[in-house]
Amino acid sequence: MFANTPEPPYYAVIFTAVSTDDLEGYEETSALMRELAEKEEGFLGIESAGEKKEITVSYWKDLEAIQKWKHNTDHQIAKARGRKDWYEAYISRIAKVEREYGFKK
Question: In terms of pTM, does the model score above 0.85?
Answer without folding.
Answer: yes
